[in-house]
Amino acid sequence: MAEVVLFHHVRGLTEGVREFAEALRGAGHLVHTPDLFDGILPESLEAGLALTRELGDEFDRRADRSVGELPAELVYAGFSAGEAVAQRLAQTRPGALGALLYESCIPVTGEWAFGAWPKDLPVQIHGAEDDEFFGEDLPAARELVQLAGPDLAELFVYPGSGHLFTDSSLPAHDAEATALVLERSAAFLARLDGR
């Protein structure tokens, strides 16, 4: 069993995020779903981005507090803006076992980087090929895969243009692609559990 902390996107801790977490639990893993918006569910991406900007550094402080009582040996996962939180913690909090990065990826070199990718840290990245947001991050995802190496890093790109396609409670949801994301994520976690 892997222990996972799964960070929500800018629409908040939606039913779709909860459902995704439940599917990972159904595969035998312990999954934590912190609510960085304290129950607020923004009605649009724009409203969610505005709330994230309004929270500023408090957004990251809430994320840090959410893992403060958890063991160091975690798999960090997140969707879109939550991916940035997951990636930051995977790269900077000692003990990380792996990272599942959904619909976003922060560069691992240059001014936006959190630092070098940790040696021997497995990662999976998932996104839709024509998603305008993920499209901006695709070069960073490819760079991460190249730097981490094929034994540790996997990049999966799915047909479609929907951002947050993995969230069953939102209009962009793609059930078929989400099922594949979950299957690949569960396989990733199972491999970590076997290490």
TrEMBL record:
KW Hydrolase (keyword) present: yes
Name of the protein this chain belongs to: Dienelactone hydrolase
TM ranges: none
Pfam family for this entry, one: DLH
Alphabetic keyword roster: Hydrolase
Claim: Amino-acid biosynthesis is one of the keywords in the record: no
PANTHER family: ALPHA_BETA-HYDROLASES SUPERFAMILY PROTEIN (PTHR46623:SF6), CARBOXYMETHYLENEBUTENOLIDASE-RELATED (PTHR46623)
Record GO terms (molecular function): hydrolase activity
The Dienelactone hydrolase domain, residue ranges: 4-190
Organism classification: Bacteria, Bacillati, Actinomycetota, Actinomycetes, Pseudonocardiales
